[in-house]
Amino acid sequence: MEATKVLDAKGFACPMPIVKTKKAIGELEKGQVLEVHTTDKGAKNDLTAWAKSGGHEVLKHEEENGVLTFWIKKG
């Protein structure tokens, strides 16, 4: 999936992945996609809930070798 911007939030614990994601998505235009990489297991629920509450859309997420990757479309 093509992302406009990639955010490396690996190694950070809650709430830093959300804080960094919020800052990064603020730099995008509506409709652009942010790719987020994190090792925080809580991010699966946290990022999904945060995106929904902010009017953004989680297009896809996957986990590989302990790294969660999310593609979030800015609403």
Task: Describe the 3D structure.
There is one protein chain. By secondary structure, the protein is an alpha+beta fold. It has one domain (5-73): TusA-like domain (Translation Initiation Factor IF3, 2-Layer Sandwich). 29% of the residues lie in helices and 35% in strands. It has two helices and four strands. The protein has helices at residues 16-26, 43-53, and strands spanning 5-9, 33-38, 57-64, 67-73. A four-stranded mixed β-sheet has the order 1-2-4-3, covered by helices on one side. The protein is globular, with a radius of gyration of 11 Å. The chain starts with a strand and ends with a strand. The mean pLDDT is 96.
Structural class: alpha+beta
Give the count of structural domains.
Answer: 1
Number of helices: 2
Shape: globular
CATH topology: Translation Initiation Factor IF3
The largest β sheet comes out as: 4 strands, mixed
Q: Report the span from N to C terminus.
A: 17 Å
Radius of gyration: 11 Å
Helix content: 25-40%
User: Could you tell me the strand content as a percent range?
Assistant: 25-35%
CATH class: Alpha Beta
Number of strands: 4
**Biggest sheet: strand arrangement:** 1-2-4-3
The CATH architecture can be named as 2-Layer Sandwich
Q: Quick one: CATH superfamily?
A: TusA-like domain
Please trace the helix and strand order, writing H or E for each element: EHEHEE
The overall pLDDT, averaged over residues, is 96
